[in-house]
Amino acid sequence: MLEGTIPDSIGNLSSLLFLSLDKNNLSGPMPPSFGSLLSLKILQIQFNNLTGTIPPTLANISSLNQLLLRENNLHGEIPHFAELPSLSIVDCTSNYLFGTIPISLGRLSSLEYLVLGMNNLTGDIPSSLYNLSSLKALALPYNQLEGTLPSDFGNALPNLQVLLMYYNQLRGRIPASLSNASELNNIELSFNAFHGTIPPSLGALQSLKRLELFGNLLEARKPSDWSFITALTNCTSLQVLDLGDNLLQGMMLKSIVNLSTSLNILALYNIQISGIIPTEIKNFINLTYLDVSVNDLRGTIPVEISHLWQLQYLNLSSNMLSGEIPPTLGNLTRMDKLHLGSNEFEGAIPTTLSNMLVLELLNLSNNRLSGSIPSEVLSLSSLASFLDLSYNLLNGSLPLEVGNLINIGELDLSNNRLSGETPDTIGKCAILEILHLENNLFQGSIPSSISNLRGLQELDLSKNFYSGQIPAFLDELPDLQYLNLSFNNFEGRVPMKGVFKNASKVLLIGNPKLCGGIPELHLPKCTSDAFAAKHHSDYKLKVILIPICGAILCLIIIMCLLGVHHLIKNSRRKPLSRFSLKNRHMKVSYDELFRATNGFSSDNLIGTESFGSVYKAAMNYENADIVAVKVLNLQQHGAFRSFMSECEALRSIRHRNLVKILTSCSSLDHCDNDFKAFVFEYMPNGSLEEWLHPNARENRPFRSLSLIQRLNIAVDVASALEYLHHGGSVPIVHCDLKPSNILLDNEMTAHVADFGLAKFLRQPPDESSEHSSTSTVGIKGSIGYVPPEYGMGCKPSRLGDVYSYGILLLEMFTGMSPIDDKFKDGLSLRGYVRAAAASPEHLMDIIDRNLHSVDNDMAYREECVRDCVVSVFDCGLSCSNESPYERCDMTKVSKELSAARETLLS
To answer: Where does the sequence pass through the membrane (predicted)?
Structure first.
C-alpha cells in the first residue's frame, strides 16, 4: 500500500495513458502537474485520503476519458472541464465538495456517467445537464440541491438509464417528459419536496425496474390522479414500487392487480388507499415485502394471500380489516415479521401460525380476537422481537407453553379476559425485558419464577386479582424500571429496596391492605400482630417481657456494631454494581471471579477483544458451570466508555444469534484499582477465527468447516445483524464485525459478540440520519473489515456493518484473511474474488481448499455446489461494494443466503 503524497514530478510522464492509484493511503493535495499529462486517458485515484481541491489544470488533458476520484477528502468547488471532449465518466462521490455544479459540465458531449453523490453541493442543477444526449447515469443523491426539474426533462436524454436524486431539497412537480428518457430503469427521487400528481407518462418506461418516490408531498385527490397506476402496468419489469408517506388519497387497492408480477417490494403505507385487498394479489408470486399499513382498507384478508409463498414481511396494521384471520396464512412459512394490529379482526387466533418457523415478530393487538391463546403459537421459539396480543377478547388461562418463548424480548397480553394463575413456566422466558399482563382476570400470587427474569425492565400486573404479599424478589431485579401492581388484592409490607426505592417507578394504588414502604408512597404504617397482643396483655406479662426485650436490644446493638466494622473492612471487595441482563442471576464479586479463573491465569485465557481479555471460568468451582469472563483493560483509552456502551447494547438486544450475557461486575481488585467485567455463556467451539485460521502452535488436531457449516454460520450472522439493524425501535451498529467476534456453541450455531464499539442510531432509522453521531464511543474497528467511508470521516452506519459482513463472507469461503500478506500493491480480498467472479468455474478455484477435505461428496454435487458458491460470492461482493449506497441491506442479504442454503440442500 502506497503512502505519502503524490510527487509533483509525476507530470514528467508525458506519455502516460493510464494512472490508477486506487485503495492506497495517499494524502495531501493532487499536484497541479497532472495537467502536463497530455496523453492521459484514465485518472483513477479512488479510496485514498487526498485533500485540497481538484486542480483546474486537469482541464488541459484533452484526451482524458475517465476521472475517478471517489472516496477521498477533497473539498472546494468542481472545476470547469468544458474543453475535455472525450470525458465520459466523472465520479467524485463521497468527498467534501461544495458550491454549485458547474454549467460547463453540460458541454461535455461524451459524458455518460456523472456521479457526485454524498457531497455538500448546493444550488440548482444546471439545465445544461439535461441536454447531454450521451448521459446514461445521473447520480446526485445526498446533497443539498434545490430548485425544480424542468418541464422538458428527458426530451434530450435518450440514453439515460439511472436517475438518483434522493435526499436533496428539490421541489416542484415530477415532469411528465421524464418518460422521453425511454431507457430509464431506475428512478429514485425519495425524500425531497416534490408535489403535484405522479405523471401517468411514467408507464411508457418499459425498462423501468425501480420507482421510489416515498417521503415527498405528492398528491392524488380525484380518481384521474391515480391513472399513473394503470399506466405502470406497461412496465413489465417493475420490481420495486414505493410510494409511502405522501399525500395521496382515494385509491382503491384493486387498481394495483395488473402491475408486473415481477414485483418483489410493494410499499403503499400511509397514503389513504381504500377498498378491499383483491384476490388477484395472488398473482404477485415474487413478492417478498408488502406494506399497506396506515390506510383505510376494509373487508377480509383473502385466502389467496397465502399463495405468496415468498412473502417475508407483511404489514396490514392500522386499517379497518375485519373477519377472521385465515388459517391458510400459516402457509407463508418464510414469514419473519407479521403485523396485523389495529384492525377489527375477530374469531380465534389460527393455530396454523405455528407453521411460520422463522417468525420473529407477531403483532395482533387492538382487534376483537377471542378464544384462548393457542399453545402452538406460544411454542414458536423463533419469536425474538415481540409478541403483542393486547386489547383483544382473549380468554381462558395462559398456557404452560408460554415458557417456550425463550428468545422473546417483549410480551404484551394486556387488556384481555385471561384468567387463572400465571404459570411458573413464564420464568423460562429468560431474556424477557417487557411483560404486560394488566387488565385481565389473573389471580393467585405472583409466580416465584419471575425472579429468573433478570433482565426485566417493565412489569405491569395491574387491574387483576393477584393476592398475597408482594414477593421480596421483585426488589432484586436489577434492571426493573417500571412496576405497576395497582388494583389487585395485595397485602402486607411493601419492600423498600430496588425499584421500590423510587416512588416514580412503582404504582401500588388500589391495594388497601398494603402498608409500609418509603414515605413517598403514602401508605399506612404497618402494625405488628405481636405488638397488638402485647398491648392487651396484663401488667405481669409486661414486667417479664421488658427486661427480655432490653437484653435482646443490647445484643442487637452489639451485633450491628460488629457488622458495621466488618462491612467497612470488606466493602471495597464487594461489587459496586451489577447488571443481570440475561438469563441467570449470578451475584459475582471480584474475589469470586479471581478464584474462578485461577487468578486470571494465562492457562484460562481463551481470547482477546477490543478492550479486554476473555477467560474461561468455573463458577461452581467443580467445572459444572463453565462461563466466559471478559475483563476490561481500563488502562486502554476508551475502555470505560466501551464498558458503558456494551452495557447499554446488551440491555437492548435479544436474539438467538447474539452472545448471551449472564451478569456483569463493577468493583475493585486486590490493589484497589477499578475492575469491570462481563460474564457470558461459554462457547465451547471457540471463535470462527480459530476455525478459519488455526494457530499451528496450538497443537490441535486438524479441523475445518464444511460448506453447509459455513453457510449456516453466514446465515446466523446475517440474522443477528438484521435484528440489530431493523429489529428494534433504535437500530444498533456493531462496528467491529470480524471472525474473532463470531463465537460457536456446541451445535456450531454462531453468536455475534463484543459490543464494545456498538453504536445506537437514535435518530429515525433512515440513511440520512446514519451520518449523525449518536454514541460516545469512537469508531475504530479492525483493519481489513472497516468500510472505506469510515476512514474519511463518515459516521457509523448500518451500511458500514454490511461492508464488514461482506468481507467476512468472502473470507469464510476462500479461507483467506483480508490482511493476508498477498494482498498488497493494490490487490485486496474483494478484488481477488471479483477477478475470479468473471467465470463461475474460476470461482470454484478460489474456494478454501480445506472444503475438499471435509466435504468428500462435493464432486458428486458439483453443479449444486457451484450454484451455491456463486450466490455466496455474489452476495459478498455486493455487500463489500466500495460505495455504501450500492450495498444491499441485511434483510436482503439474509434472504439471499437462506435461498443459497436451500439450493445446496435441495
So the answer is: 544-568
CA 839 vs CA 810, 814, 844: distances in Å: 16, 16, 9
- Judged against a pLDDT cut of 50, whether residue 776 lies above it is answered with no
Nearest CA to 725 out of 663, 799, 616 is that of: 799
Q: What is residue 552's predicted lDDT score, i.e. its pLDDT?
A: 66
- Topology given in CATH for the domain delimited by 687-906: Transferase(Phosphotransferase); domain 1 (1.10.510)
Residues 115 and 93 sit within 8 Å (Cβ to Cβ): yes
At residue 290, the 3 state secondary structure works out as strand
According to DSSP, residue 687 is labeled: B
SS3 791: helix
In 72-216 the beta strands, taken as DSSP E runs, fall at 75-76, 89-91, 96-99, 113-115, 120-124, 137-139, 144-146, 162-164, 171-173, 186-188, 193-196, 210-212
Task: Give tens-digit pLDDT for 520-567.
Answer: 888 999 986 434 434 444 444 454 555 666 666 656 665 655 554 444
| pLDDT the model gives residue 585 | 42
**DSSP result, 720-775:** HHHHHHHSSSS-EE-S---GGGEEE-TT--EEE---TT-EE--S-SSTGGGGS---
Contacts of 827 (CB under 8 A, 6+ apart): none
Say if residue 880 is exposed, middle or buried (CB neighbours under 10 Å; 0-12, 13-18, 19+).
Answer: buried
Question: Do the two domains 372-526 and 575-682 of this chain adopt the same fold?
Answer: no
Q: Does 820 qualify as catalytic in the annotation?
A: no
Selection from 808, 648, 653, 809 nearest residue 720 by Cα = 653
Q: Pick the more confident residue, 121 or 862.
A: 121
Nearest to 612 by CA among 630, 627, 593, 598: 630
- Residue 621 confidence (pLDDT): 40
Residue 59 phi, psi dihedral angles, 5° rounding: -65, -15
CB 318 within 8 A of CB 342: yes
d(CA 431, CA 405) in angstroms, rounded, equals 9
Long-range pairs of 607-614 with CB within 8 A, sequence gap ≥ 24 = 607/686, 607/687, 607/740, 609/740, 609/741, 609/753, 609/754, 609/756, 610/642, 610/736, 610/754, 610/756, 610/757, 610/780, 611/636, 611/638, 611/639, 611/642, 611/643, 611/756, 612/639, 612/677, 612/756
Instruction: Give the model's pLDDT for residue 844.
Output: 80
Task: Kindly report the CATH class assigned to 575-682.
Answer: alpha beta
Amino acid 584: pLDDT:
39
Is the sign of the CA dihedral 341, 345, 346, 347 positive or negative? negative
Grid cell for residue 531: 405488638
Domains of the chain by residue range: 1-146, 372-526, 539-571, 575-682, 687-906
HSE-up of residue 580 (Cα within 13 Å, Cβ side): 19
CATH superfamily of 372-526: Ribonuclease Inhibitor (3.80.10.10)
CA dihedral 356, 361, 366, 371 (to 10 degrees): 40
Cα–Cα distance for residue pair 902/838, rounded to 1 Å: 24
Q: Which residues contact 29 (CB under 8 A, 6 or more apart)?
A: 5, 50, 51, 52, 53, 55
Instruction: Find the DSSP H helices in 578-677.
Output: 590-596, 639-652
Q: For residues 659 and 609, give the distance between their C-alpha atoms in angstroms, rounded to a whole number.
A: 14
Find out if CATH 3.80.10.10 is the number for domain 1-146. Answer: yes
Q: Comparing 2-11, 234-243, 350-359, 599-608, which segment has the lowest mean pLDDT?
A: 599-608
HEC assignment per residue over 528-558? CHHHHHHHCCCHHHHHHHHHHHHHHHHHHHH
3-state secondary structure of 295: coil
Asked whether the beta carbons of 593 and 575 are under 8 A apart, the reply is no
For the chain, the average pLDDT equals: 85
Quick check: 846 and 866 in contact, CB under 8 A? no
Catalytic residue (one of 242, 245, 736, 848): 736
**Residue among 259, 317, 266, 256 at smallest CA distance from 287:** 266
The strand pair at 120-124 and 96-99 is best described as parallel
